Here is the input.
Amino acid sequence: MSLQKYLNNLESLSGKKVLITGGTSGIGLSIVDQLLYKGADVVVLARNPDKSKEVKYRMLEKYPDCHLDFISYDQSDFKSIETAIDVILKEHNDFYALILNAGCFTTYKTQKVDDDMSLTIKTNFVGLAYFLDILIPKLNNKHRIIFQGSLAAGYYFKKPYDLYKYKASSFQQYCMSKAGVEEIYNHYRSLDLENLSFYLVEPGLTSTDILRDFPFPIKQLGSLFLKAASHSVRKASLTALLALQENIHPCYIVPHSPFTWRGYPKIKPFPKKRNRPYLYNLVEETIKKGN
Here is the structure.
């Protein structure tokens, strides 16, 4: 089956409002494109206003009748998160689904934010936990919450005891932050909230600009590997699109290849060995400390 045929076989999203964080580049941008193609009203939460304007121009050229809005949102900044939540609750509380896609992978040169916490951990893990801590108790309607996971969550990383002074390589920090995303997902799905459905999706291996901050040799080698082993950004976006289908109940969705590197989406049980409840406890302590 061709990718276009697979996408066409998915049910229409016409009349449904979908919010997505980090939708101006990479997989997030591809998801936005596919959402608009399927007729969804899309609201992108994004950090860079220039990118937002560029994306809006491109999407309106491609889909002249689309409904596309933007909210200023920086997942590494608590005040930005609070402001964005106010906008969501006042203007977009009728959303059908929220796709939590925002994330980054930074080197030591670009990772410091404050109090010795790396930008990778602050954005991917702590900021996401803070966002949901505030938002979820205020949601009254039925919504789908879709977490964008990563293969990296299953790789080895040094167990952190303090997220502010977590001494590990950039790659280990990224793996830990993505394991943290999984644990936030595990926490909320365990609550059995009546009005909310939780999904974890993985895009597989994809050639994106995630290595943009790395030295030239690493960036080149990494890009070559991804081009050889990965699938397209458009195919990587399909796991999130599948989670939006009415007949798909809360689940874990990954590409269908043996190592979940690539391919069309499939549903599978979440690996129990990747349950790390200490990570959720740690991020909650970190948020309280930060406030």
Summary: Strands lie at 17-21, 41-46, 68-72, 97-100, 112-114, 117-118, 143-148, 196-201, 252-255, 265-268. The mean pLDDT is 91. The longest helix spans residues 170-190. The radius of gyration is 18 Å.
